[in-house]
Amino acid sequence: MNALHGLYVITDAALCARHGLSDSVAAALRGGARLVQYRDKSGDQERRLREAKALAALCREHGATFIINDDVMLAKACDAHGVHLGRDDGDIAAAREALGTGKVIGISCYDELERARRARELGADYIAFGSLFPSSIKPDAVRAPLTLFAEARHLGLPMCGIGGIDRDNIADVAAAGADMAAVISAVFDRPSLQEIEQAARALAGAFG
To answer: What is the pLDDT along the chain (208 residues), one digit of tens a residue?
Structure first.
């Protein structure tokens, strides 16, 4: 199975705390999430490492790809499958040197095709465009058109859509050419673990 294809869930400290981080991610994986990104901006390094190691093991158990948001050293310490870097999160070459050739490096490209081209030249493994739709998590995020996926297809990299994706529009994201759709609240903002699993299953269905 392609490791960079399908539903891509990103953790949120507050939303995942409702039912427990590991239990919430496990429910999403049961529902069909194929990639998990651990995103935690706190300064509690011990807790972050502990949580990342637990999620790394959980993803391997489910055959899913585990990515760390922004933190190359944490990705290395927990033996994640890779790291995702935004505009201010460090250099692709430095991340590759630290992680090695077998790890995944994803790059946020926002609404910038040229940034995607540069990411490819520097050795990124996938690119992400967004926010595709209004996002409650990042309401001020720059908006990216769905047409970017067709424009960037020639780069030959797997592409991820992010921002405001939900059950009503995820099919449009897949149809536009995205290989992955990254979501947070559409999966984790649910009143029960069963509903997290159900939400993930409904979203994952857009990618077959």
So the answer is: 578 999 999 999 999 999 999 999 999 999 999 999 999 988 899 999 999 999 999 999 999 999 999 999 999 999 999 999 998 767 899 999 999 999 999 999 999 999 999 999 999 999 999 999 998 777 888 899 999 999 999 999 999 999 999 999 999 999 999 999 999 999 999 999 999 999 999 999 999 8
CA distance 31 to 200: 5
d(C-alpha 141, C-alpha 7), whole Å: 21
Residue type, 92: I
Positions annotated as catalytic residues are 39, 108, 138
Interatomic CA distance for residues 187 and 202, integer angstroms: 10
Class of CATH domain 6-207: alpha beta
Q: Taking the model in full, what pTM does it have?
A: 0.96
CA dist 134 and 157 (Å) reads 25
CB distance 6 to 174 below 8 Å: no
Neighbours of 2 (CB within 10 A): 11
Q: Where are the domains of the chain?
A: 6-207
Alpha carbons 132 and 72: distance in angstroms, whole number: 26
Q: 197 is written with which tokens?
A: 């699993």
